[in-house]
Amino acid sequence: MSSTTAVAGKNYLTDPKGIGSWIYTLDHKRIGLLYLVSVLFFFLVGGIFALLVRLELWSPGQTVMSADTYNKAFTYHGTMMVFMVIIPMIPAAIGNFVLPLMLGAKDVAFPRLNLLSYYIFMAGALLGVGTLFFKGVDTGWTFYTPYSTKTGSAAAMMVMAAFVMGFSSILTGLNFITTIHKLRAPGQGWTKLPLMCWALYATSLLQLLATPVLALTLCLMAMERVFNIGIFDPALGGDPVLFQHFFWFYSHPAVYIMVLPAMGVINEVIPVFSQKPIFGYKAMALAVFGIAAVAFIVWGHHMFTSGQSATAGFIFSLITMFVAIPTGIKMFSWLATMYKGTLRFQAPMLYAYAFLFVFLIGGLTGVVLATMAADIHLHDTYFVVAHFHYVMVGGTLMGFMAGIHYWWPKMFGKMYSEGAAKLAWFFVFMGFNVTFFPQFIAGSQGMPRRYYDYVAEFTIWNQVSTVGSWMIGVGFVISAIYLMASLVGGRKASDNPWQALGLEWQTSSPPPTENFLVDPVVTHGPYDYDKVAA
Amino acid sequence: MSSPSSVDHHGKPGEHHFAHHFRSALHEFVTCKQGMWLFLVQEVLFFSPLFVAYFMFRAQYAHDFHLGALQLDWKMGALNTIILLCSSYTMARAVTASQRGEKSIVKYLAITFLCAAGFLVVKYFEYTHKIHDGLLPGKFMTNPELLAEAPKAAIFFSLYFCMTGLHGIHVIGGMGVIAWIMWRAHKGEFGPKYFTPVEMTGLYWHFVDLVWIFLFPMLYLVG
Ligand SMILES: [Cu+2]
């Protein structure tokens, strides 16, 4: 299809104009950008909390803050990063922008609901940030009972915030599933669907099916706090472990809500920057559903030390290891896609490499933790902290960075400085490993997570880790500078700067308000780099 | 709004301008219907922790739950079941009427609305009676006999109030939606070419009834 830059100057960013046209926008591209700006703001705040936590851990004993402040700092870091950043980061921000474009659709299925989801998210996020003015929260992001029902901090307000944001996530999932089912361009059969869309589909299923369970559980927890209903209170005959079951029934799938969309991004980036068809398209599509399905029956691996029976522990341990099968299929297919490809080492691809590297470590240490006997030793140590940062930060954040660098020219019609991007990539990727790899060592030697103080032997690992956190900080500051600079003085991006085959590259950069001036018809697969010249 | 970003317009009776991102009115209808079904799936999972907690504690404290359940008035519960079943019937009639463009839709929606209100009135009497007897959740349980014989009945009443309360909130929400589409039906917006909101409300209302069909035997009858 030919390019559609004919109507130069008119695009979704400039048409219609005015603040109101953004606040009340029903355009999925603008809603995606609203999410992007909000999520990046919360990422900044959550990142500052992370830097503070790392700074406090520079030396044993008090370094810069009191123990109570420290408890709050890691709670805000965790809660904000999970609920306000990594969960909406790829699906709601990037996904909203690219999904209808990739389907050749004019919008998502329910544009009003989409805008409503954004405002629900913001209401919940502001409620969550608002707890800072009501004594703060010190429960950690897991809100375990009975501590969360007894603490003097604003735990009820924080869980209500997570409850509200949950509905944003549910409604976005609902919207995306329906969009993928009903709004695909003519000719785009299920086997011509880009793998990013498959990943968003599986993610949406998890959002739709798991989030309501958390929402109600958090309601019950708040009721417990306010009305002492006793369901989670052993003094009244309730069961605090039931809370953990409900919590992880959501929060294990939530890990895949975070990482599946990142896999989707990697699925798009690797074929484009290898100029080769993706290896094993159908296996790749099935694998995300395999991961999503297994996600619902492994939650008990968080509770090996919570008094769950050994039989239950064994079964959860075994099923958890099955996650490695579809994940392995994806890893090997990505490698096979690159094999003998025409590789280009530009920013999106560098982040895809970073993803493969850190996600491999994150995934393999996951198998270590799934082994019940090993987990008894490693449970609640820094080994776990390192593992889930390798998966959640390594996986999601690297995927997000790959995606934002890949679609940036489409979003804003501008190219960023490739040199600056490579420099930032170096700091982010190196900094990430410097921060979290030592935590595997400290954790395996027994340093407990969430502790304010530690024995002097762990000082060296903590100091390396803290230096790493500064490197990550530098990397993101550089990224922020060159990305913003590109908006002002960046080179104009062509419609298809990466020679990609996806539908989103067939419209102008940035796209017109209605996405495509001519309704697209799909005639080839999204990764037919061997058959079609992009 | 005249730009392509405006989503839909409700025109004169019988005419429905479907939203710009759909290919036809039918395309819009089937999309909305799928969205509604997914919403209901979400609702099932939203209620599910309460059901899991109920079965778990029921197995753990069978005796106390038995005595707790005996405190509920099954006649009131049965009355409410009948009321909701009737409302489901009138809701179905309202959907059919809207598809055929019949005026009776307003009448059927009004009866559905009144049934919902009746349900809440019965529930109000039940609640006040329970509060009067000190049959309250968790720590607030003050009923002397039950405290002596079945202290864990407090959990039963926690679940009773949470489950019927959450269901009640759904009934109230449903009344709001029914009132809204009743007003739109009164203006003549629905007909054979456009009845999506009525059908969606119908699906939701049947779901709310169905939840009660499970709650009634679980809370009132299994003794
Ligand atoms: Cu898990």
Detailed description of the structure:
The complex is a heterodimer of chains A (534) and B (223). Chain A has 534 residues and is mostly helical. In chain A, 66% of the residues lie in helices and 1% in strands. Chain B is mainly alpha-helical. Chain B has a single domain, classed as Up-down Bundle (Four Helix Bundle (Hemerythrin (Met), subunit A)), CATH 1.20.120.80. Chain B contains seven helices and no strands. In chain B, α2 (62-70) crosses α6 (153-186) and α6 (153-186) runs antiparallel to α7. Chain B is elongated. Chain B starts with 24 loop residues before the first helix and ends with a helix. The model of chain B is unreliable at 1-14 (pLDDT under 50). Classes of the chains: A mainly alpha (534), B mainly alpha (223). At the A-B interface, α4, α6 and α7 of A face α1 and α6 of B. The complex binds copper (II) ion.
For this entry, give a set of tags.
heterodimer, A: 534 residues, mainly alpha, Cytochrome C Oxidase, Chain A, two-stranded antiparallel sheet, 66% helix, B: Four Helix Bundle (Hemerythrin (Met), subunit A), 7 helices, disordered N terminus, binds copper (II) ion
Beta percentage of chain B is: under 5%
CATH topology of chain B: Four Helix Bundle (Hemerythrin (Met), subunit A)
The profile of the biggest β sheet of chain A is: 2 strands, antiparallel
Q: Under CATH, the topology of chain A is which?
A: Cytochrome C Oxidase, Chain A
Strand order of the largest sheet of chain A: 1-2
**Tally of discrete structural domains of chain B:** 1
Average pLDDT reading of chain A: 93
Query: What is the average of the pLDDT values of chain B?
Result: 90
CATH class category name of chain B: Mainly Alpha
The helix/strand order of chain B is HHHHHHH
Radius of gyration of chain A: 23 Å
Unreliable parts of chain B: 1-14
Helix content of chain B: over 70%
